[in-house]
């Protein structure tokens, strides 16, 4: 296991391409990542996190253009993506091709899709394979002692000890300050609906759409 700096993102990208897991920081918290088209790598994340199979990993596209190539974006999805990407917003989008959907079972269909800023976005841009990501924590552990996803390297190591996962590269980004989720908007239907609030406020989403967005 290598611990590297954000300047060494190429090492994390090569590890992803080789079927390994990597952990990278975001402004929100640390994320564990795999090749989205590698079912075995994605499955190891589900098992380690004890994450239900119905809760798909996020697909991190390197750019809006790449996202448009693989997914169908309606008018409202295009508006939100143009306004907030790269950023802390994820959109549930339908695949253009059933074959693509079948090759990326870890991210599901519709796919929870984002274009990320910072180190996670750099990883998606550098890697020659699609990147799947999720928070570095055990799923469903909402007890009184549960801190939520890791925001420090020390908490990353606690997560790894609990999950039994062994990433080949950890990118040390220091302390992740926001400790909050991405906002999720369902754009699978023509009229977008809010699934989860997060760092992109509901009022901001409504303003971008020119209407009050309803909850799914």
TrEMBL record:
Known catalytic reactions: L-threonine + hydrogencarbonate + ATP = L-threonylcarbamoyladenylate + diphosphate + H2O
Stored Pfam families: Sua5_yciO_yrdC
EC number(s) per entry: 2.7.7.87
Residues in YrdC-like domain copies: 6-200
Subcellular location: Cytoplasm
Keyword annotations of the record: ATP-binding, Cytoplasm, Nucleotide-binding, Nucleotidyltransferase, Transferase, tRNA processing
UniProt similarity note: Belongs to the SUA5 family.
PANTHER family named among the record's database cross-references: SUA5, THREONYLCARBAMOYL-AMP SYNTHASE
Protein name according to UniProt: L-threonylcarbamoyladenylate synthase
């Amino acid at each position: 296991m290598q611990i590297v700096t954000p300047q060494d993102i190429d090492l994390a990208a090569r590890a992803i391409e080789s079927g390994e897991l990597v952990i990278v920081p975001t402004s929100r918290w640390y994320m564990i990542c795999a090749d989205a088209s590698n079912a075995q790598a994605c499955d190891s994340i589900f098992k380690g996190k004890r994450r239900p199979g119905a809760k798909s990993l996020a697909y991190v596209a390197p750019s809006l253009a790449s996202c448009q190539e693989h997914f169908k974006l309606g008018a409202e999805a295009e508006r939100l993506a143009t306004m907030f990407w790269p950023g802390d917003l994820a959109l549930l989008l339908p695949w253009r091709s059933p074959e693509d959907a079948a090759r990326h079972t870890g991210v599901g269909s519709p796919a929870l899709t984002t274009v990320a800023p910072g180190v996670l976005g750099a990883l998606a841009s550098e890697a020659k394979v699609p990147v799947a990501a999720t928070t570095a924590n055990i799923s469903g552990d909402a007890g009184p002692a549960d801190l939520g996803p890791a925001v420090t390297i020390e908490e990353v190591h606690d997560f790894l000890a609990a999950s039994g996962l062994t990433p080949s590269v950890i990118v040390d980004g220091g302390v992740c300050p926001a400790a909050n989720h991405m906002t999720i908007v369902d754009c699978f239907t023509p009229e977008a609906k809010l699934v989860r609030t997060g760092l992109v406020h509901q009022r901001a989403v409504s303003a971008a759409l020119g209407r009050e967005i309803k909850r799914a």
